[in-house]
Description:
It is built from 14 helices and no strands. With 338 residues, it is mostly helical. The chain has one domain: Up-down Bundle (Rhopdopsin 7-helix transmembrane proteins).
Amino acid sequence: xxxxxxxxxxxxxxxxxxxxxxxxxxxxxxxxxxxxxxxxxxxxxxxxxxxxxxxxxxxxxxxxxxxxxxxxxxxxxxxxxxxxxxxxxxxxxxxxxxxxxxxxxxxxxxxxxxxxxxxxxxxxxxxxxxxxxxxxxxxxxxxxxxxxxxxxxxxxxxxxxxxxxxxxxxxxxxxxxxxxxxxxxxxxxxxxxxxxxxxxxxxxxxxxxxxxxxxxxxxxxxxxxxxxxxxxxxxxxxxxxxxxxxxxxxxxxxxxxxxxxxxxxxxxxxxxxxxxxxxxxxxxxxxxxxxxxxxxxxxxxxxxxxxxxxxxxxxxxxxxxxxxxxxxxxxxxxxxxx
Length: 338
């Protein structure tokens, strides 16, 4: 094939190669704006959150900022720096090749976070280590994919490494799917039968399960588009914003949890204030105007009725808190939200 025919083929490929790059950058910038708003909202109310959670939020936001800047530079490289330079369309700059790395830097800590939440709900270290190892293996394959791509930075050579992309996206999709399913299962088991507690659990299910399920759907969509359109960059429409989706789901879940925690604490404070004497009572000393009534109560020593556990040490007779105990319900709510 002559050089003129090669240039004609490259020019004909501009819509399916450069068009997705432009649209993907626009989608990525829009989602980055949502990440920025969620980040500001988190730090306006997240000072009471744990330091590891705050560090993870800062890390993912830094990764998103770096990746968005690199994506904008890639757009500049193609459309401004190499304007009317058709052969550059067949090359892949470093932001394109490092796309799996940026996605993994955001997804790995978030997957580990949700795996730890499942461990807290289930109490099973086996489940935690299984999910953690699956996430690490998926991330390792993604890093290997980028490492191989950097050695051959061209469109044809990159497509020849499609099997690594398929393995990485499949493992990531399975990991996120397991996270969503196990979160739903263990949160459903946490229901107590009380309307107030169950409504809180329902809200947590919506924020946690929908977040991880959305991540799994994005991985599936990227896998399908990448294999259906091998001679184009249409997969960038899903792959480039994927890291932002992970961050948005994390921040949305954390912000929802903090809001529910403040709502619960506000209800508890309102209850405690209602039990205190009113301002009128304190000003006019209404309670002090009444003379105390002396009441005599005959107390009968019933030590013989002490639970047998205290005497024999048997665990069978030890009384656990019942589900109807209000203190137990409040503890259950806060342990789920924490």
